[in-house]
Amino acid sequence: MKALVSIITPLYNAEAFISETIRSILNQTYTNWELLLIDDCSTDNTISIINDFIFENQNITVVKNETNQGTAISRNKGIMAAKGDYIAFLDADDLWKPQKLEKQIAFMENENCDVCFSSYEQIDENGKPLNKLVNALPSLTYKKYLKSNYIGNLTGVYNAKTLGKITSPNLRKRQDWLLWLSAIKTSGKPARSVQESLAFYRVRNNSISSNKIELLKHNYWVYKKGLGFSAVKSMYCMLVFLWEHFFVKSKQTVTLHKK
What we know:
Blueprint lengths: L4 E7 L6 H9 L6 E7 L6 H11 L3 E5 L6 H11 L4 E4 L5 E2 L3 H12 L3 E9 L5 E6 L4 E2 L1 H6 L9 E3 H4 L11 H13 L3 E12 L9 H15 L4 H18 L4 E3 L4
Parallel strand pairs: 1-2, 1-4, 2-3, 6-10
Antiparallel strand pairs: 4-9, 5-10, 6-7, 6-9, 7-11, 8-10
């Protein structure tokens, strides 16, 4: 029997996107999965929408927070409830291509890989292609990944059988970076990628990636609070990050030719 994959989706007021996101999971060619939806006290129509899916699909479960606790705690709650051999993540506004899980799980099992990610494409808030492809590095060491967040969280999968359950600290932003750093460090092996684009990342107008000042502030706290570095070491890491992010990592994003 194929390994079980646990998919973790934290959500808050996601009525505009959650149906499309869930359908992209239902359309997976790899069928042995469970979806854990962690609702962080949504006040819109999110719960009603996901209840319709739960009624028809026994492998979808919703966990409701009693109070609004943020993405990190919600994601960790899903991880701790997961039963899968592998753990994957998909935020409530992003999408997977149909062969995403099938190709990554096969790669991980064939290559004895603990942490896997892939290339992905960008879409706008309305789901229209932005004609931008983010190419995944073939291999990613802890040292390289410390310089900048190279793993698109919507593409990441880790082997919970070998690594145990990897969670993230309770920072308001960039928790995924710390989670994957921990997974790579625990593994002792580089993360490996499927070079093919297997997902769509939705660029939101109010996202952290669209606000460069916020991006720098939250990245500093990754080093200072998340990793416990001194202020001096954190500032040094930020200088390295600036170079890596704007002059090295930026080359991973290429413009696609319109069909």
